[in-house]
């Protein structure tokens, strides 16, 4: 009997949501998320434009998963589409935001707002495959999976081709560890990043010249880090992400 009652309640809630316009969602979004031009209904709808922390993420569509009514969470399959990036994922949200099965690809200029704090612009593209990404407000709780940057070029004081860069995200007890390595670049990169829940980070990076390094890069390495016995240059840095 209980099973049929639960099924009936879910069916009732679903039918009610079908009559609630999607634009109603705008009243429940946090201040740092702004949507425009809603279509459809709360159950299955879309927004032609969505901005998060004043960053345009493009159009977003969603379909609520009925099974999540049992957990009293907002749970939906989401597709995001922007001229510079596309993604799909499942979101669970109540007090925190949980993303699962994240598949994303696009242009690295999507990271421009973050990298501008360091005076760096990029070119290239990326592919992300994350099994989960958990957030509390604007803070990152944990991320698991990998992001690959293809033909990545960093433009700052120098223009440096990093080639293909693989970043592996692994949850730890009190932080997320990111192991980074590249290939086919103008300098060899190996780094370990510790990203903590308060958005602080610690970087331990090694750079090494290779056959693709020009003289400008070779001369610059000595100013970027401390030379090691094996010929690499080590750079250690602490800071806080400003997202």
Structural class: mainly beta
> What percent of residues are in strands?
over 45%
Most strands sheet? 14 strands, antiparallel
Which stretches are poorly predicted, pLDDT < 50 over at least 5 residues?
A: 1-16
Structure description:
Helix content is 12%, strand content 57%. The protein has helices spanning 2-17, 112-115, 215-224; strands at 33-40, 44-52, 55-64, 74-82, 85-93, 97-107, 121-136, 139-155, 159-171, 175-183, 188-196, 200-208, 226-227, 233-240. The chain has a 14-stranded antiparallel beta sheet. The longest helix is centred in the first third of the chain and has 16 residues, at 2-17. Mean pLDDT is 84; it is low at 1-16.
Give a quick summary of the entry:
The protein is 12% helix and 57% strand.
Q: SSE layout and pairings?
A:
Elements: H1 2-17, E1 33-40, E2 44-52, E3 55-64, E4 74-82, E5 85-93, E6 97-107, H2 112-115, E7 121-136, E8 139-155, E9 159-171, E10 175-183, E11 188-196, E12 200-208, H3 215-224, E13 226-227, E14 233-240
Antiparallel strand pairs: 1-2, 2-3, 3-4, 4-5, 5-6, 6-7, 7-8, 8-9, 9-10, 10-11, 11-12, 12-14, 13-14
Features of this protein?
243 residues; mainly beta; 14-stranded antiparallel β-sheet; 14 strands; 12% helix; elongated; disordered N terminus
